[in-house]
Design brief:
CATH architecture: Sandwich
Number of helices: 8
Shape: globular
Number of domains: 1
Structural class: alpha+beta
Strand content: 5-15%
Distance between the termini: 25 Å
Number of strands: 12
Order of helices and strands: HEHEHHEEEEHEHEEEEEHH
CATH class: Mainly Beta
CATH topology: Jelly Rolls
Largest sheet: 5 strands, antiparallel
């Protein structure tokens, strides 16, 4: 399999095409390591654990709440990321990210974290108290991108997120018959994620400051932590400022092109070009 990372921090046409085909692109150095360190200090304080005393790391995962402090907002709004959002979502079609969302901080542990199932992230229907009733539709209402922000160095043993390469294509086809109403996470979890099991798997590893920009339909999964140092990673959505449109005749975004190709099949490749 090809190298999914790249040295240059600016997305070129080849990276955009990779996003359309594979469902994600790895952006190294998307925000400074120093910013990641300042954010980690705030997170460590909120875990109630001592970073220098592993005996205090008693749970496989600690979930921390919404983070809007300066290092988090700064990490999400670098010039590198804004340029990438423009390439993948379209200029003026996304909202500035003002929160890093929740953090599942994963600690080295032999125990099952209990949240390691394959899934996509929901994008609307949050008013329902049952999160399995939250929804996704073929127009990706409420979500322009799934993003994985690495706030610590993440190696293969450090509970990196598992990604099914190209699975966004399968999910687009599953969602299409449900129209604007879409499907709930519960409906998708019943066999539909299994339809992506044939896809190759990639691990979201990288140094602190790396961001994986993912198609909203990309199927991914957590996993147990077998390393030595806790993993700090956030999965905030990039929110759209205008709804996705799959019927655009001109200036389609990479996210829209990926969905349209999935639904129309190979002929669409001859008509679409990544903008």
């Amino acid at each position: 399999m090809s190298n999914h990372g790249h040295d240059a921090r600016k997305l070129d046409d080849a990276h955009v095409e990779q996003f359309i085909e594979q469902g994600f692109v790895k952006l190294e150095g998307a925000f400074p390591r120093e910013t990641a360190g300042r954010a980690r200090a705030l997170l460590w304080n909120d875990t109630g654990c001592d970073p220098d005393d592993p005996s205090t790391w008693r749970q496989p995962v600690i979930r921390l709440g919404m983070y809007t402090q300066e290092p988090f907002v700064s990490a999400a709004n670098t010039a590198v990321l804004h340029a990438a959002f423009d390439r993948l979502v379209g200029a003026r079609r996304w909202q500035r990210c003002m929160s890093m969302g929740t953090f599942p901080v994963r600690f080295p542990s032999p125990d099952d974290p209990g949240d390691a199932g394959w899934h996509v992230d929901a994008s609307f229907g949050y008013e329902d108290p049952d999160f399995m009733s939250w929804r996704v539709n073929v127009g990706s209402k409420g979500r322009a991108l799934l993003m994985l922000f690495l706030f610590s160095d993440v190696g293969t043993e450090d509970a990196p997120t598992r990604i099914r390469v190209g699975s966004h294509v399968d999910i687009a086809r599953v969602l299409a018959p449900a129209g604007d109403e879409g499907l709930t996470l519960r409906e998708l979890a019943v066999n539909r994620f299994d339809e992506t099991a044939h896809r190759d798997e990639v691990l979201a590893t990288g140094e602190a400051g790396t961001v994986y920009l993912c198609h909203p339909f990309l199927v991914h999964s957590a996993q147990p932590h077998r390393g030595t140092q806790p993993r700090f990673m956030a999965q905030p959505p990039l929110l759209p400022s205008t709804p996705l449109r799959l019927d655009r005749e001109h200036d389609s975004s990479a996210v829209e092109i990926a969905i349209r190709r999935a639904l129309l099949g190979p002929p669409a490749r001859e008509r679409d070009a990544a903008r």
